[in-house]
DNA sequence: TTTGGTGGTCATGTTTTTTTGACTTATTGA
DNA sequence: TCAATAAGTCAAAAAAACATGACCACCAAA
């Protein structure tokens, strides 16, 4: 088939895009922290060592754009925003567990 | 437990290190191409679109240092080198397949 | 109408990664 | 001895990622 090679390339590109998305700064931390429930921007900033607003913001935005996280304004009083794993995001959980176990090989 | 958090951090760090190793330029391609059997430097250079010697060399060296690839000189005629997946490398195969399927979500 | 809290953005530097092009080593065959 | 081929290395430039500090938007209460 002539499509075989191009299909494979597409797969590789997607795998690479996903890998890149997940491996950027603070992304694994955001991911793992969000396993325990919804997260607020300020708490992430506090809880992730060395995190800064700009990178964290970029991480959250990109993960949201990829459909892995969802963003929800929960209060307008002093303005609260929550980030939580989408269904798609939750489907990556076993992947992360696998990754952590591989890390120990 | 006080160890719980540090354990998780260790896991994250290891996962992150592995993510970095696997997500670098051309690494997923090298990985997937090597599923079909041993690879030569020049064929990788040909088959991976946009690949350049330096980055490819770095990818191969790092994957070898991590124990995922093995390097073998197979001929001394015009000097041939083969790269192939180690046992450890092969153990990552399902992980990559999972990644590729996620890429399509 | 000024202050305070939360959740950001923007412009600018700095650091890390990747690319590029010239050079190297080893071996064979002419 | 000289060219050719495979598999690289090295230094420098270019590009991408990341960090920093200043600033903005929104709303409420004082």
TrEMBL record, chains A, B:
Residues 13-105 form the HTH hxlR-type domain. The keyword Membrane does not apply. GO terms for molecular function: DNA binding. The keyword Kinase does not apply. Coiled coil: none annotated. It comes from the Bacteria. Keywords: DNA-binding, Transcription, Transcription regulation. Gene3D superfamilies: Winged helix-like DNA-binding domain superfamily/Winged helix DNA-binding domain. PANTHER family: TRANSCRIPTIONAL REGULATOR, MARR FAMILY. This is Transcriptional regulator.
């Amino acid at each position: 088939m002539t499509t075989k090679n191009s299909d494979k390339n597409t797969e590789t590109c997607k795998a690479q895009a996903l890998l890149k998305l997940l491996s950027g700064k603070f992304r694994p931390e955001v991911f793992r922290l969000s396993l325990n429930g919804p997260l607020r921007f300020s708490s992430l900033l506090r809880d992730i060592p060395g995190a800064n607003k700009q990178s964290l913001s970029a991480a959250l935005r990109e993960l949201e754009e990829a459909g892995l996280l969802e963003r929800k304004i929960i209060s307008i009083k002093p303005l609260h925003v929550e980030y939580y794993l989408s269904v798609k995001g939750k489907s990556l959980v076993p992947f992360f567990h696998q990754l952590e176990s591989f890390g120990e090989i």
